[in-house]
Specification:
The complex is a heterodimer of chains A (285) and B (313). Chain A has 285 residues and is mainly α. Chain A has twelve helices and no strands. Chain A starts with a helix and ends in an 8-residue tail after the last helix. Chain B is globular, with a radius of gyration of 24 Å. Chain B has 313 residues and is mostly helical. The termini of chain B are close together. Classes of the chains: A mainly alpha (285), B mainly alpha (313). Chains A and B meet through helix 5, helix 6, helix 10 and helix 12 of A and helix 1, helix 6, helix 7, helix 8 and helix 10 of B.
């Protein structure tokens, strides 16, 4: 097993970086990620320090990306806000994958559950993501945890659908039959034999969900039904900056660029992963 | 064919019943008493008792669910707490801007995306192709409300080409109202064109590699005719599906875009309902939108039969 993994790895990375855009996107995303994680160290100023005199200062030497309506440094806020936005995106990607894997495996494995679970997935996917998310957040209340919970519920069916479809294919393969003949329990077959072989589509899809969740969080915050407006996220920064759009459009320009760059690099990485993990699927979409 | 239709319609009914159930459950997920939540902190316990009785919340949960589902299937989605009018009436009153916004932006998206998608596939690998894919990906990565805010400031406030916001006021005639939708429709259209472009290109690429295209070419058929008649006709099927699927994207986009441009449509209504805790309206919007989505996707599947005579179920 270990030897197999070793001999496969270089080929995978080679495939992944074969397209220069994927390498660039990964580089950009890592830079954004590291800068936000290390916000305490990297940020030039305290993101909460106010200064009346610096109010709405345009980008320049003192404030690289300007200062907001309270005279707070936009760059520092952007880095700290990014930490929250990225955490929400990652949290949603992980939790929705976990829920989706369980539902998808059950639906793919147990014929009796399949009908009901598949219809449930269809019904959940009939709700537009933002609409379902704002309904859920309105019920649960706006906080980081609840936004992550709501968006995980919204995106879990997408993973579940993919896991179910992949499970239906893999469960019929000879090695699964062999494992069953050798007396492996259904649970062992599900987790070791099937799940391990459908990891690629799950990883690809959760990369996209990471991206969608960041867009959705920004949308919710903009609508005023996301995280507490006092918590800086890229979405709340845009929502807050909106009042000053005529005097200081840079207040919404930079957080918008930050979201777009992160989401774009995640999408390119997702495309790259899909093509590298399963070259048969490689369709240069 | 008939059995396929029956199966699809039964499936659709089951999904719509589940949609009703989910919409019912979501509101019941709220911690605490829904009546107290709806009334807010200023209400007296007496108010809560009255509202509970009015909404039937004092009855067993199963009875409540059956009443809710039965009423919904007969077109009664309850009464808005804020407007004190039937939810269906409230929704109908706000539907016009959203419907026209969705149609206009879909038209814009198709006009932008289909020709570029066809051309990109035809000139695969060229700078035009790569530019088109990159632009589409970028358009799908930018938050639509951000695009909206930027274009609103630039094209409406600064250049004055479009009305900055609103729906023309109560006396505005139809044309004036539509004029207010142009800029929001462009914003939504840009977002949706990304998906349509990628799909058009992908399905054209599939078709252009087919034998019958080579045959048509070797017969000496003009390229224009090969691409537009033979290829596009067959590529149309996947494009139709994606148009059905963009409906969800359009609605999600409309919620945010209507808020940016202050358009009194369904999106704006549902956000206000969330802020006012008007749960029947939230529930009603969820049900109507999800049912429409299910219906539209059934219709696009059936359209296959019309577009492609080879598809038989």
């Amino acid at each position: 097993m270990a030897a197999g993994a070793l001999s496969r790895e270089p080929r995978f990375l080679e495939l992944l970086f074969a397209r220069r855009s994927v390498a660039v996107a990964l580089g950009v995303f890592v830079v954004v990620l590291v800068a936000c994680v290390l916000a305490d160290v990297v940020a030039p100023a305290d993101p909460a320090r106010m200064s009346v005199r610096a109010r709405l200062t345009p980008p320049g030497d003192a404030y690289w990306l300007g200062a907001d309506a309270f005279g707070r440094d936009v760059l520092s806020r952007l880095l700290h806000a990014g930490r929250v936005s990225l955490t929400i995106g990652l949290g949603v990607a992980l939790i929705s994958s976990a829920i989706g894997i369980v539902i998808g495996l059950l639906a793919g494995f147990y014929r009796r559950l399949d009908g009901a679970l598949s219809r449930l997935i269809d019904a959940m996917m009939a709700f537009p993501d933002i609409l379902l998310a704002i309904a859920l957040v309105s019920i649960l209340g706006g906080s980081i945890v609840n936004v992550v919970a709501a968006l995980s519920i919204v995106y879990a069916p997408r993973i579940a659908r993919i896991v179910r479809a992949s499970t239906l294919v893999v469960r019929e393969l000879p090695y699964v039959e062999a494992a069953r003949a050798l007396g492996s329990s259904t649970r062992t077959i599900m987790t070791t034999h099937v799940l391990r072989n459908i990891v690629s589509p799950i990883v690809v899809q959760s990369t996209f969900i990471f991206a969608y969740a960041m867009l959705a969080e920004a949308g919710l915050s903009f609508l005023g039904v996301g995280v507490d407006p006092a918590t800086p996220t890229w979405g709340t920064m845009i929502a807050e900056g909106r009042q000053y759009i005529d005097q200081a459009s840079f207040l919404i320009l930079f957080p918008g660029i930050a979201i777009s760059v992160s989401v774009l690099s995640l999408q390119i990485i997702g495309d790259g992963l899909r093509d590298a993990m399963d070259p048969r699927l490689a369709k240069d979409l | 064919m008939t059995s396929y239709l029956v199966r699809r319609i039964v499936g659709m009914v089951v999904v719509i019943l589940l949609v009703l159930t989910i919409a019912f459950v979501i509101v019941r997920l709220a911690p605490g008493d829904p009546a107290a939540l709806m009334l807010g902190p200023e209400a007296t316990p007496q108010d809560a008792v009255e509202l509970r009785a009015r909404l039937g919340l004092d009855r067993p949960i199963l009875v409540q669910y059956l009443t809710f589902a039965g009423n919904a299937l007969r077109g009664d989605l309850g009464t808005s707490i804020f407007f004190n009018r039937p939810v269906t009436e409230v929704l109908a009153g706000r539907a016009e801007p959203t419907i026209f916004l969705a149609l206009m932006s879909l038209a814009i998206a198709l006009v932008i995306a289909t020709p570029i998608g066809i051309w990109a596939a035809y000139r695969r690998g060229s700078w035009l192709d790569q530019g088109a894919i990159s632009t589409a990906m970028l358009a799908a990565s930018v938050p639509s409300f951000w695009t909206g805010l930027m274009l609103q400031r630039w094209l409406a406030t600064e250049l004055g080409w479009f009305p900055a916001a609103g729906y023309g006021g109560p006396d505005a005639d139809f044309l004036e109202r539509m004029r207010h939708l142009i800029l929001p429709a462009i914003v939504l259209g840009i977002v949706n064109s990304a998906l349509i472009l990628r799909f058009t290109r992908a399905s054209m690429l599939d078709i252009l590699g087919e034998d019958y295209i080579r045959t048509a070419r070797s017969k000496g058929m003009p390229e224009r005719r090969v691409v537009l008649r033979h290829a596009l006709k067959n590529a149309a099927i996947p494009i139709i599906t994606i148009v059905g699927l963009t409906f969800a994207l359009l609605v999600s986009g409309a919620v945010v875009t209507e808020r940016v441009f202050n358009i009194p449509g369904l999106g704006n209504l549902v956000v206000s309902a969330v802020l006012r805790r008007d749960y029947p309206v939230i529930q009603g919007t969820l049900i109507v939108v999800a049912s429409l989505y299910v219906l539209i996707n059934l219709l696009t599947d059936l359209l296959y039969l019309v577009v492609d005579k080879r598809v038989r179920y």
